[in-house]
Automatic annotation (TrEMBL):
The protein, known as: beta-N-acetylhexosaminidase
Keywords in alphabetical order: Glycoprotein, Glycosidase, Hydrolase, Signal
Domain (Glycoside hydrolase family 20 catalytic): residue spans on this chain: 186-285
GO BP term, example: glycosaminoglycan metabolic process
Signal peptide: 1-22
Catalytic activity: Hydrolysis of terminal non-reducing N-acetyl-D-hexosamine residues in N-acetyl-beta-D-hexosaminides
Group of enzyme by EC: hydrolase
Organism: Photinus pyralis
One GO cellular component term noted in the UniProt record for this chain: lysosome
InterPro entries: Beta_hexosaminidase_sua/sub, GH, Glyco_hydro_20_cat, Hex-like_dom2, HEX_eukaryotic_N
EC number: 3.2.1.52
Family, per entry: Belongs to the glycosyl hydrolase 20 family.
GO molecular function, one term: beta-N-acetylhexosaminidase activity
The Beta-hexosaminidase eukaryotic type N-terminal domain, residue ranges: 36-164
């Protein structure tokens, strides 16, 4: 009886196991190469491609310029040169390797991208809800151009350009010949961060702003105060943060706020700071009234 029962259990187990599918380890979605996020309004894609050696690549400003533009170009040159696929940064080993690439739609090494800003920009310019973010990128066999009416469009185009690059075996980076015409469907694209209920250090907020720029979002909705705490240091009412913050170190100074606004503006992001009315200031009011 025991032997029969054991045999039934073994057969049942084998039947169950044979009907179970094995889940492969790794990501459920395979990462794409050279795709743009968010998906651009219009893109014409070619199998022909350039190779880029990050250490030799440059952006050429051929028209209007300002500190916002030069700062953005410096950031993206750094991203391409130092942060994108470090294990692939090497040139072709020999002429035979280059010849094999030529036979498979390789059109040559790309050394620069022309950046054309059509309208002047100011060094202290701040993004607005009506800012123009449209841009065009043309990567052809004999010309590579990023053009936009405003500096905000150039910022979005530089982010798109960085996303077009992907690694090549034995080489640096691949850039397919592509034409992109893009503009946002929504003028307000943002993220709300609540630093009243959960204090977030300034350096973490800067990383969040970088993440917004990588995703072409343009609003940092900063819920800076609420019922739980009052971390903003007011010049006129310093007691609000002195008695309303979680800790004396969990505050945002005037210079912190100014720096965050400037950092965001350099990435085409508006900072919308939200201060709750006194009815929601119990974190400070209870202590101030004592």
């Amino acid at each position: 009886m025991n032997t029969k029962l054991s045999l039934i259990i073994v057969i049942s187990f084998n039947l169950i196991a044979s009907n179970c599918y094995t889940v492969k380890p790794g990501p459920l979605v395979i990462a794409t190469e050279g795709e743009v996020w968010p998906k651009p309004y219009k893109r014409i894609y070619s199998d022909s491609f350039h190779l880029i050696n990050p250490s030799d690549f440059s952006f050429n400003i051929v028209s209007e310029s300002c500190n916002i533009l030069t700062g953005a170009i410096s950031r993206y040159k750094n991203i391409i040169a130092n942060q994108t696929f470090p294990h692939t940064r090497k040139q072709a080993k020999n002429e035979e390797q280059i010849s094999s690439w030529k036979k498979s739609n390789f059109v040559g090494y790309l050394e620069s991208l022309d950046v054309i800003l059509m309208e002047p920009c100011n060094d202290d310019e701040i993004p607005t809800i009506s800012m123009l973010e449209q841009y065009e990128i043309k990567i052809a066999e004999n010309a590579s151009v990023l053009a936009a009416t405003s500096v905000w469009g150039i910022l979005r185009g530089l982010e798109t350009f960085s996303q077009l690059l992907y690694p090549a075996e034995g080489h640096a980076l691949i850039l397919n010949c592509t034409f992109i015409s893009d503009f946002p469907r929504y003028s307000h694209r943002g993220v709300l961060i609540d630093t009243s209920r959960h204090f977030i250090p300034v350096q973490k907020l800067l990383k969040i702003l970088d993440a917004l720029a990588y995703n072409k979002l343009n609003v940092f909705h900063w819920h800076i105060t609420d019922d739980q705490s009052f971390p903003y240091q007011s010049r006129d009412f310093p007691s609000l943060s002195e008695k309303g913050s979680y800790l004396p170190t969990h505050v945002y100074s005037q210079s912190d706020v100014a720096m965050l606004i400037k950092y965001a503006a350099a990435r085409g992001i508006r900072v919308v700071a939200e201060f709750d009315t006194p009815g929601n200031w119990s974190s400070a009011n209870r202590k101030l009234l004592q």
